[in-house]
Amino acid sequence: KSSYLYFNFKEEAMTNLKNKVAIITGSSRGIGKSIAMKLADNGAAVVINYSHSADKANETVAEIKNKGGNAISQRLDTSCIAIQADVSKVTEIENLFEETVNKLGQVDILVNCAGIVIYKPLVEITESDFDKIVAINIKGTYFTCQQAVKKMNEEGRIVNISSSTTAMMLPTYSAYVATKGAVEHNIQSKI
Fold it and tell me: How far from the centroid of its chain's Cα atoms is residue 108's Cα?
């Protein structure tokens, strides 16, 4: 059994995303951006969520639109938008979902990709460091899942991204792997 979630973009699993709306947290760059690009390539209208990187989020939106990532229904007036929300704050998560529904009409897919790591050994992690990692990696994932369950129909999908580092003993990852372990257990609870 794998100790991490493996998100595989097999073509057959991605063929019916036309008229679907996906929120991808932390998608202005990195893994989140790659996931958003692939979902858009396969027809989903995507929400690029970012906390601080508005320029990067807008670049991602432009890149998706330039590639023609749309395949949207008539009721959706746009194929890709950026919405600022700090997922460590529940009110901002609520606003993310409200704005998505107001602008795109629905939420069908949530991909929780927002996350941070602070590379310090256990003895150097401060309470502030720990609180920041927990707020984004655990609290953010938990409350975005909560909003998704409230906003999605029964056919909606939630994907929580974890990390292979939960199976490793890396000296500067102690707080990070603790949060990703919590995400994995949340996945197993079958929301």
Answer: 13
